[in-house]
């Protein structure tokens, strides 16, 4: 088969998509704006081609799509306008030889038109390019990434969802299943896969697991949405658009949209996804 294009290949999910595509002995084009980082990550693999790519610069499309038959789309967090991705989707349609495009979306997005992922999914479907949307639940990496600061320095989790349940999934599991989809495009065309961990837990249990593994008391502060956003903006200094998207996603969680547990990962991969406890043991340095 032709090459597999992975956009956002230095990110949480994209790097695992590319790694597992290479483990499947397929040729991959790893694309992004930080080509030096990509060179450090994939430069030694003869099956990896590294290209500069920017969704907002159509001049970067041709090189990225050279010899490509399947595509992984990761929306950069700073591109909050769905239309920023439309020209690239149009280019996929115009190429005439794309067997599958797999867009990293959100679980439950089919019922929520507010986040940009909804309109991007619909635009892909209308393009008539074969697709397989990847709709994961919340990444475990959110706890070791954007929320690690409070855990590490204040032994606190600042997430405004009360006792709502979340079926956390490891980004590595998302990358592995996405790579399999991209390597077997005919088997997965015109589907949408909701991918979760094997159980749904609340943030009080997250705090309990972290307390056990770290050997110190971690608390879940359960702030109001208003206070959480104010903290993200004024104390953490997070980008306003990023904080607004995060606010919307956690509002969805409060409404119960993140508690769904699916068997999709096991159905496709033939094994169980990682548990949060397994993830925490593996990533303990993020909070020490």
Automatic annotation (TrEMBL):
<feature type="domain" description="NmrA-like">
    <location>
        <begin position="3"/>
        <end position="279"/>
    </location>
</feature>
<dbReference type="InterPro" id="IPR036291">
    <property type="entry name" value="NAD(P)-bd_dom_sf"/>
</dbReference>
<protein>
    <submittedName>
        <fullName>NAD(P)-dependent oxidoreductase</fullName>
    </submittedName>
</protein>
<dbReference type="Pfam" id="PF05368">
    <property type="entry name" value="NmrA"/>
</dbReference>
<dbReference type="InterPro" id="IPR008030">
    <property type="entry name" value="NmrA-like"/>
</dbReference>
<dbReference type="InterPro" id="IPR051604">
    <property type="entry name" value="Ergot_Alk_Oxidoreductase"/>
</dbReference>
């Amino acid at each position: 088969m032709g090459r597999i294009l992975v956009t956002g290949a230095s990110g949480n999910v994209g790097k695992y998509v590319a790694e597992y595509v290479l483990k499947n002995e397929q040729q991959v084009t790893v694309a992004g704006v930080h080509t030096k980082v990509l060179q450090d990550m994939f430069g030694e693999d003869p099956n990896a081609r590294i290209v500069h790519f920017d969704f907002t610069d159509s001049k970067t499309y041709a090189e990225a799509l050279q010899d490509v038959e399947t595509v992984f789309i990761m929306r950069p967090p700073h591109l909050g306008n769905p239309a920023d991705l439309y020209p690239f989707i149009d280019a996929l349609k115009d190429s005439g030889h794309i067997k599958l495009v797999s867009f990293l979306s959100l679980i439950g997005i089919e019922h929520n038109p507010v986040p940009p992922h909804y309109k991007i999914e619909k635009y892909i479907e209308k393009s008539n390019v074969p697709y397989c949307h990847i709709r994961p639940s919340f990444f475990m990496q959110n706890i070791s990434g954007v929320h690690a600061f409070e855990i590490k320095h204040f032994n606190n989790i600042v997430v405004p969802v009360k006792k709502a349940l979340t079926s956390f999934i490891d980004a590595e599991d998302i990358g592995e299943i996405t790579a399999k989809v991209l390597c077997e495009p005919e088997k997965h065309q015109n589907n949408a896969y909701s991918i979760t961990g094997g159980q749904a837990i609340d943030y009080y249990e997250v705090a309990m697991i972290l307390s056990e593994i770290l050997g110190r008391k971690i608390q879940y502060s359960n702030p109001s949405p208003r206070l959480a956003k104010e903290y993200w903006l004024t104390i953490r200094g997070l980008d306003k658009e990023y904080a607004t998207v995060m606010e919307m996603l956690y509002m969805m969680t409060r409404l119960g949209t993140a508690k769904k547990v699916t068997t999709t990962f096991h159905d496709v991969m033939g094994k169980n996804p990682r548990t949060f406890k397994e993830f925490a043991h593996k990533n303990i340095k993020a909070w020490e």
